[in-house]
Design a protein that fits this description.
346 residues, mainly alpha, Rossmann fold, Tyrosyl-Transfer RNA Synthetase, 2 domains, four-stranded parallel sheet, 52% helix, globular, binds adenosine-5'-triphosphate, binds magnesium ion
Amino acid sequence: MQMTKPVILTGLRANNDLQIGNYFGALLPIILMAKQRAGEYQINLFMPDLHSFTTPVDHAQLQNNIMNNLRIFTAAGLPLDNPDVHMYRQSYVPAHSELTWILDCFAGFGELSRMTEFKDKSARLGVEHIGVGQFNYPVLMASDILLYQAAYVPVGDDQRQHIEFTRMLAERMNNRFGELFTLPASMQEQAEFFGSSEGRALRIMDLQDPTKKMSKSDESGKGCIFLGDEPAVAHKKVMSATTDSVAQVNHDTINQPGVSNLLRILALLRGVELEVVVHEFNGVTSYGDFKRTVADEVAAFLTDFQAKLAAVDDTAIKSKLAESEALMNQQANQTLLNVQKAVGLR
Ligand code: ATP
Ligand code: MG
């Protein structure tokens, strides 16, 4: 059972409610592809449940979070009735874990130690407080991608290094054992494929500290707009976003990271190019009205999205999972068997 169409794949960890960076950076690109180009592509949107607790979570809440995120995929417009679209939970396809162990033995301790996310987290928490899962997850991520021979993996800019690592590992295996894996496209090629106007992947920044990316596991949550935020709460978060004292609405990510981030968010919410909103606020010298425009747009988006979320039918989700997980096991097991044979296990 081999994939007959090029595969587009992405996953979003269910460790917390999703935030707008996840939505615009990973979820929306794959859903747009699913709507516009299923037929040409196989679309895999999966729940990386094994990745959920590489950082600490409330395990009593994990099942709820997983279900909530699956509802979010559906509310965001994933066409569940399309036979080229697959929605599945990683842990229901055991090949992910098995391939990870094999690839671990060909991945370098040094190269994983150099991953920026690992370095940042271990510097912040101390090596004694960081799990082996956090260290090792790029290999699991490589397995998630390579098992399905995925060509395109829409992810935010923060995952650039892990995509490069996946490409490198796949190439290393192919050089040694023959053509086992399709190399996923580089981040540059992906940005072009998904039609980013700047030719690079998206990075929405934290509203409070616009020099760091918005993250759903952020401790305070003040700089992060969650898809489940009360619209009025999110409105306040935008109104109190960090700006600067330049007193001009410019897109300048070096000197005005906060203002630039709000411009970017506004353009995404309106579905227009960045230049359009930059032009709209050209010459504006006070931030109050500008922020209110963004805050209103955020609140309207959340109101609309949450209405869609409330209308999602769980039975449709459950039957899609059963169907996709059966098929994904066939595809993944085929790749796994090729690898097992190559390394001498079969
Ligand atoms: P966590 O803090 O738990 O790591 P996260 O917000 O970084 O949460 P992930 O589950 O790690 O979310 O990533 C899901 C997807 O969302 C990935 O493809 C990632 O690149 C993308 N993504 C995460 N944050 C942003 C952001 N601020 N801007 C654009 N894309 C993002
Ligand atoms: Mg992350």
